[in-house]
Amino acid sequence: MRAFQSICAMACGLALCLLPIAAAAQTVNINTATEDELQTLPGVGAKLASEIVRDRNEKGAFQSVDELERVSGMNASVLAKIRSRLTVGSDSALVVRPGATVTSSQVRAALKPYAAEPTIREIQQAAIDYARAHPDRIDSWRARAANRAFAPQFETRVTKDWDKTNRKLSVPGDPVQNADYNYDNWQLMVRGVWDLDRAIFDPEETAVAREGIRLQRYRDDVLNEVTRRYFERRRLQLELDLSQPTEMADRVRKELRMQELTADIDALTGGYFSQKLKEIGRDPY
């Protein structure tokens, strides 16, 4: 009996000795760890763990372990001691625990990976430029129609007068011959005409107004289409990143839809969208 008790005591002692080693070997993800999990790190108490979680919720996920220095209460010595046990996870992915309240800072953190992509305003401007439907074009038409009455209409006319003279020449030994001499007189006439009645009302302004309305509707259609596709693509990006599909068919279908939306935006912007994605190192397709 005593021998059994001695063995149990030795086993418990060994377990207690190995417990700190096991704890030291465990890696802590500072972007997903709870306050209790953070307190398993040496030198991190309840107050510092609370500050880490608060900072993460307010400013978004940590992009690197070094960003822990921004946390109030964290000093270089503590960070150096626990650095080997810290990780920020894969691509600093945002993880929201089931049942937990989603804060506005977490929403901003979820959208942060897409900040380098073109904004909706840049895409809309590229679409308008590509469709040649900019409002300045309508204003230019109206200005030219309004000033049309003050610009003269020029008329030109070219005339040519013929002066034909008949002379008879007698050459000894030859019969009498007729010689014709032609003299060409060219005249150029230029005349400017002002139709001042158009200063009061120009029928062309009505046509310009109709064309302006048509162009405005076309511009609105282009903006609606590119805006709808832009945000549908963004929602699909978030869905793929935050709740990744577990079925192959579902994943393939969503990836193909992403490519389709990218192609639609490219078609509306003349390839501007995919060009900008390539500039930031992202494959558009």
Kindly summarize this structure in a few lines:
With 285 residues, the protein is an alpha+beta fold. It is 53% helix and 13% strand.
Describe the protein:
There is one protein chain. With 285 residues, the protein is an alpha+beta fold. The protein folds into 3 domains: 23-104, Photosystem II 12 kDa extrinsic protein (DNA polymerase, domain 1), CATH 1.10.150.320; 120-146 and 202-279, no CATH class; 151-198, no CATH class. The chain is 53% helix and 13% strand. The protein has helices at 2-25, 35-38, 46-59, 76-82, 104-111, 120-131, 135-146, 203-242, 248-269, 272-279; strands at residues 28-29, 86-87, 153-169, 177-193. The strands form 2 sheets. The chain has a two-stranded parallel sheet. Strands 3-4 form a two-stranded antiparallel ribbon. A hairpin with a 7-residue loop joins strand 3 (153-169) and strand 4 (177-193). The longest helix is centred in the C-terminal third of the chain and has 40 residues, at 203-242. It is elongated and about 110 Å long. The two termini are 72 Å apart.
Keywords:
53% helix, two-stranded antiparallel ribbon, alpha+beta, single chain, DNA polymerase, domain 1, 3 domains, elongated, 10 helices
Topology:
Layout: H1 2-25, E1 28-29, H2 35-38, H3 46-59, H4 76-82, E2 86-87, H5 104-111, H6 120-131, H7 135-146, E3 153-169, E4 177-193, H8 203-242, H9 248-269, H10 272-279
Parallel strand pairs: 1-2
Antiparallel strand pairs: 3-4
Helix pairs in contact: 3-5, 6-8, 7-8, 8-9
Helical content (DSSP H or I, runs of 4+): 40-55%
Q: What structural class should be given to the helix and strand makeup?
A: alpha+beta
Question: How many beta-strand segments?
Answer: 4
Task: Provide the gyration radius in Å.
Answer: 42 Å
Number of self-contained structural domains: 3
Distance between the termini: 72 Å
Binned strand content = 5-15%
Q: How would you describe the shape?
A: elongated
- Our count of helices gives 10
Return the average pLDDT rounded to an integer. 77
Largest sheet: 2 strands, parallel
Which H/E pattern describes the elements?
Answer: HEHHHEHHHEEHHH
Flag low-confidence runs: 14-24
- Major sheet strand order: 1-2
